[in-house]
Structures are given as structure tokens and as C-alpha cells.
């Protein structure tokens, strides 16, 4: 039955997953913190949606994630929807490069999304005086490592929500 879901419905289910992750992270205070660095699941979901379902779903999920960030009032208004839409589209375009290796693609796209977002936050929030560059670099590397750890788990959930099973390995014919 999951195979017959339309692309729009699967994308809507991923947006519901984004909203659920956002509500759990913000209202219940269940922010995952390791070594003082919080992992944010929204960029991981956007990257996984782009890799699993393509650039259209990546764009829609990116827009939803960005709007959720703007609703929270964290940062410059309008920057997050634009940023996450671009990241979702980019992850979707790399979908073909990682066919059969979606875990690697999701890890790479998640790390790139989180790293670029950290750099943009550092530059646009003008934290030069309040945060040292070494502390910023340490936090950014830890966030990237956490993204590598959690992105396969998020990929499994996004695959289940989107109705896609793990792709089967290609079987080569025996040599004749």
C-alpha cells in the first residue's frame, strides 16, 4: 500500500515528520546534547528527504523547516527558509550520485548542511567577539560528527515515511 502513495502525500508526511521533530525538540526540551553540543534533527530530515525523494521533496521539506525556524524567532527572518530550500534542492540533485548508497549521501548532505549553517550563523550573528574561533570550530566539528551518527537513523525513518524500502543491491549476471 505504501508504494501507491503519491509524491505529494509522501512529501506531506515528511513535513509532518519535520513538524513533529520540531515540536518534540522545542516544547518538551528534549534537545540531544553531547559534549555541550546540541544536535538538530531538522537539517538531517531535510537532507534525507532530498536524497530519498528528490529535489521537489527536498525543496518542500526545506521550506517547512525554514518556516519552523522563523516561527521560533531564531535568527534573521527569511534566511532559514531560503537556506533550507537551497539545501533540500541540492541534496535532491545529488540523489542520483548516491543511488544504492543513500546512507553515504545522507551523511554527506547532513554534514554539509549543518556546517554551512554554522558558518552562516557565525557570520550573520556577528559572534566574532563573543565566541572564539577555536570554540566555534570545535562545536562545528562536534555537530558534524553528531550528524554523521544520527543521519542513518533519520534516513530509516524518512524511508519508512516516504514508503520506500531500502534499495536492493544490483545482481550481476554470472560470467559466461
UniProtKB/TrEMBL annotation:
TM regions (residue ranges): 44-69, 81-98, 105-124, 140-158
Keyword set includes Membrane: yes
Keywords linked to the UniProt accession: Cell membrane, Cell shape, Membrane, Transmembrane, Transmembrane helix
InterPro entries the UniProt entry points to: Cell_shape_determining_MreD
Membrane topology qualifier: Multi-pass membrane protein
GO biological process: regulation of cell shape
Superkingdom of origin: Bacteria
GO cellular component: plasma membrane
Pfam families registered for this protein in UniProt: MreD (PF04093)
Compartments, record wording: Cell membrane
Protein family membership: Belongs to the MreD family.
Protein name in UniProt: Uncharacterized protein
Species, as recorded: Butyricicoccus porcorum
